[in-house]
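Sample A.
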Amino acid sequence: MSLTSPEAVFHTRRRRTCDRCGEQIPPGKLQTALVPDSSRVDPADSAGHGQRLVYACGDEHMALLVEKARRDWVDEQWWFGLLCQASRAARRASLPELARHARLSGRQLDAALKWNRDREHPLRCLPGGQSC
């Protein structure tokens, strides 16, 4: 009977790069944080709404990433994302009905639609088919 040892397979984790400088983060230096992001409306997981995970190689770069994320937040973009999400669930609803589903005021609805119209490539219809 021949005895063979089981083959050991080692997997190395993919090293992360810093979202600020783009350099690979040395072992033991990885920092992560959830930062605000008005472009993130997650249709499958509302816990991820309005935030994204960033990676940094140190305190200074993390502080810069957090500061930039806060500065880049756009309420109207966030409201438009919520409106798009509501339109997926209520395909036959009118815009005012969608706004109620998304818990948006009339002012927020108007501002979200204006934000979309003013973009370089605006949506002409919401995902549920409603005209914007």
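Sample B.
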Amino acid sequence: MIAENRKKHIWAVADLMKKYGQERNMAEEDCEDLFILGLLHDVGYEFLEPENYFLHNKIGGGILKRQGFKFWREVYFHGLANSPYHSEFLDLLNLADMHIDSDGNYVTLDGRLQELSKRYHLPINELDSYPIVKELQERGFQ
């Protein structure tokens, strides 16, 4: 079962995704798709034990692929630096995901890394999320 704080994270990511689409003057349908993508990006957690949470993107993406969800690749590849797959929606998902903390609050990219470092008791540069944040920053995202 998806934890309550993760549900807050998911809803906040969905709201931020829609906002990003609106700020970019995307079509209403694209903004709706961004919102739904935000809602579904962490669905894989529902089907994993905590020790396998690192697979949530692949499990969730696979499930969504079987369902015919057109943005399954964005779920499958989110949170991965140097992904072989690229899309505007994946960029926005990674950006939103790294701007929302585990309790659904908006944070800076560096603030998100600090939060994850404390949660996992790891130095920032050893976090799985560190390369994706650095990649986003190098590409000009803030």
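B remarks: The two ends are 32 Å apart (CA to CA). The chain has one domain: 4-138.
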